[in-house]
Structure formats: structure tokens, C-alpha cells
Amino acid sequence: MSIRTLIHGGLVITAADELHADVLLEDGRVAALAAQGSAAAEAWTADRTIDATGKYVIPGGVDAHTHMELPFGGTFASDTFETGTRAAAWGGTTTIVDFAVQSVGHSLREGLDAWYAKADGNCAIDYGFHMILSDVNEHTLKEMDLLVEEGISSFKLFMAYPGVFYSDDGQILRAMQRSAHNGGLIMMHAENGIAIDVLVEQALARGETDPRHHGEVRKVLLEAEATHRAIQLARVAGAPLYVVHVSAEEAVAELAAARDKGLPVFGETCPQYLFLSTDNLAEPDFQGAKYVCSTPLRPKEHQAALWRGLRTNDLQVVSTDHCPFCFRGQKELGRGDFSKIPNGLPGVENRMDLLHRAVLDGHISRRRWIEIACATPARMFGMYPQKGTIAPGADADIVLYDPHAEQVISAETHHMNVDYSAYEGRRITGRVDTVFSRGELVIDRREYTGRAGHGAFVHRSTCQYL
Q: Quick check: helix, strand or coil at residue 27?
């Protein structure tokens, strides 16, 4: 039986608009919007009315970069699809796009089926997949076409991690040529992994083993160089390009130069690069290991360039790259050798709140908050207007957000399955109050009412910016 829900009295914020409107939900979708007090709104009847007075009514967040249960460095990311999607919901995110992994010597199909099995029946919110290509060959290139038809319309390649995920320029070019043909979007981890491995070896030989050296060997110039190279390869292939987790001013400059030429080149950054820095990597007593991720945290002065890139649209998306490893027993694998610290940070629960903090700090506007966290990732990865907005016909993925509530981020209170917070002790103004996923209450006034298995696979079309 369908329940008609009326959300009354809130300020509706989308990427395009802010208006005091009532929202009617029915059959898992947004049925209608009408200005508060209008004849249309007054005429509505509903089975339940939710009072949103004093709150923002925003689209559920779309986190287009997560790694649940990712195998890395002899261990696995500590969030399962069940714990990770529950935590996402607590943070106001109602759709994730996770990365299925092809192992070298295996087909894309095998990797994708393994990820379907991990997620199916376990997710509290909706989910899609990108495909990591670790082994580009004639067979996997043909498989790319089939995956696009199946709603897996984006493919990630790595210029880093030789021997694990790394692809050489020839393989990258072939994959890009294929995506130019089938409409897929190539996502690039842009760091010169071959050169980085030399610097890692040299640092360890000098006895430089602490976490801070992870940031020092993964140099800004090697991110900028790889970003430049990826852009040129995409130009040769006539393909679009999406560069993930951009962390450095010089890499933003490469993206801006390409976009100034009118090229279909896009960039994503993450909260850790906007709010954390090499100061965290240098924390004593191996605490810096908590902040080891790749691309690495940068000196604070890079943050201004990233915020500027988000304002000028040279960076279009903020995702989390959520890839949590517990400090005890996982990050500790790298004691005495920073290169063995599993790479990744927890963050899927914190993104919407941190970006609201950025609104209050004057970095971005409220509508830009919704644009970079909801609407653009939905468009970039072929889910708009089903996801990322509040409009008639859209999925009823809606968050009631209290802009005045205060909270302190802490591992004591977060819902991610990891034993530390990258933002421990940070005071935030703004907090998720209530979350709907396809019209079902997942968080009801700060109480979890969701369930594993509610989340459905999202069949994505191709990038809507092309």
C-alpha cells in the first residue's frame, strides 16, 4: 500500500533554486511541489505530514566514489555494503556508486558479479557500480561495450600502483578509444606510479619510514604530470575524461587549461583535501597513518586552489573516496614501512555536513553545495533527474537538514565501521534530521528506521554532460 507523505514548511534547496515549498511524495517518487500557502498545496491530502519548519529540504546526496569491502594491501576496507550504506544514510547520502574490481587475468564479468554479490540484499540505500579495469586486453575492451548496456557506464584506470591496478599509456589509450566509441566515461587515478615507486624505494633506503613520508614521495608534480598526460591521451582518443580525487593546485591548473580549450574534461575532489593537510600526516606516534590515502593530503596552501576550482567549476564534484581501514590491526600493518599502510580514509558519513560547514564559511553557496554533492554527480554518471534533485517524477530521495543543529564529529558517535574519525573533535553547525530513500523513511528524526535490502541497483545511462 502506498503512503502519501507531505513535507510541509521547509526551504527546498536544489542546484537551481531555493523556495519555500511543500513537497508531496507518493509511490516512491516526488509527486508534486507547490509554494507554501498556495491553493495547490492547500488542496493536498496525505497519510502523514512531516513538519520541516526551520529545516532545509534537499535532495539525498550522491556519493560517486566509494570503496566498500575493497581488497587492498592484504586486507579489506572495514565497511561492508550494509554498514557503509547505513552510515551514508546517517550522513544524508542516499545513493553511492562503488567500484567493482577486475583482477589481472580475470574478466570484467567476474569482477562485476563478485560486487553484485557483495551488495545485493545488503544496502540501505540505492547503489550503482563503476568498473575498475586492471587488465586491458582485446577481451576486456569488448566487455566494456556490454557493461555500458548493463548500466555500468564508467571505467576507472590507474596510472598508479604498478603490479596491482596500473595500466600503461598504451592500455589507457585503448580503453579511452573504446569509451569514445561506446559512450562510457573513463575515470583516472592520475599519479605517476612508476616514478613514485622509485621515490618510495629511495626514501625507505634512507630510513624514512613514517607516515608523513607517504605524502612526500607522492609529489604534487607527479599528480600534475599524470593529469596532463591523461588529458592528452583523452584528446588523442577523442574521449571524455574524469579525474578522481584531485588534491593539488597544479593538477587543478591542468584541468582548467583543458576546460578552457572546451575539452570534455572533469575533476573531482574530496573533503579530506579541503579540510585536512600534511599536518595530519605528520601527527606523532604513528597517528599520521590514519590519514594515509592516495592521492595524499597536501600542504594547507593547496586548499584555496581546490575551493576556487569548485567555485569556477574547474572541479565539478565532491565525492568521498570512502575506503576505511581501522587504525588497530589494519593501518598498523605499515609500522616501520609507510608503503605498507593501507591507503584510504573513512568519510561517507561526513561529506554533506562538511560541505554545509563550507557554506557557512563562505567557500560555496547553498545551491553550489547541492550541485557538487547531489546534482552534478547524478548528471555526471547518468542518474539525473531520477537522482540529485527534487522535482516531479524524481525518486523521493529527500533529506530534512537542520542548519542550526550543532554536533561534534567523533568515532564515538559515527556509524561507519572504523575505529577512528579523520575529523575527530571537529565542531559542525548543521545536521541531518530525517532521510527518505525512494519515499521510505531511513532516518526518522535522528532514529535509524532503514533496513538492509531496501537499496536497489541503479541502472545508469551515460554521462549527461557530453
A: coil
**Cα–Cα distance measured from residue 387 to residue 30, given in angstroms and rounded to the nearest whole number:** 11
Alpha-carbon distance 329 to 428, whole Å?
30
**H or E segment to which residue 228 belongs:** helix 220-237
Residue 64 main-chain phi, psi, to 5 deg = -90, 15
The per-residue pLDDT for range 187-224, each reduced to its tens digit, is 999 999 999 999 999 999 999 999 999 999 999 999 99
User: What are the pLDDT digits (tens) for 451-463?
Assistant: 999 999 999 999 9
Environment class of 202 (CB within 10 Å of its CB; exposed 0-12, middle 13-18, buried 19+): exposed
Q: What is the pLDDT of residue 73?
A: 83
Cell numbers standing for residue 259: 576546460
pLDDT, residue 74, reads 87
- Cβ neighbors of 88 (< 8 A, separation 6 or more) are 61, 63, 66, 94, 96, 124, 125, 348, 349
Which residue has cell 547531489? 374
pLDDT at 261 over 70: yes
With beta carbons less than 8 A apart as the criterion, state whether 24 and 3 touch: no
- Residue 192 CA to residue 166 CA, distance in Å, equals 10
Residue 429: burial class (beta carbons within 10 Å; 0-12, 13-18, 19+):
middle
pLDDT digits (tens, 9 = 90+) for 323-335: 999 999 999 999 9
- CA dist., res. 10 & res. 238, Å (int): 45
Q: What is the pTM of this model?
A: 0.98
Report residue 1's pLDDT band, with 50, 70 and 90 as the boundaries: low
Distances (CA, A) of 309 to 106, 273, 437, 441: 38, 13, 31, 35
Burial zone of 74 (CB within 10 Å; 0-12 exposed, 13-18 middle, 19+ buried): exposed
Give the residue carrying C-alpha cell 516512491.
Answer: 28
Distance of alpha carbon 408 from the chain centroid: 22
Q: Would you state the pLDDT for residue 14? A: 98
Task: Evaluate whether 185 touches 381 at the Cβ level (below 8 Å).
Answer: yes
> Are the CB atoms for 389 and 316 separated by under 8 Å?
no
DSSP state of 322: B
Residues ≥6 apart with Cβ < 8 Å to 293: 245, 272, 321, 323, 343, 344, 345
pLDDT band, residue 134 (cuts 50/70/90) = very high
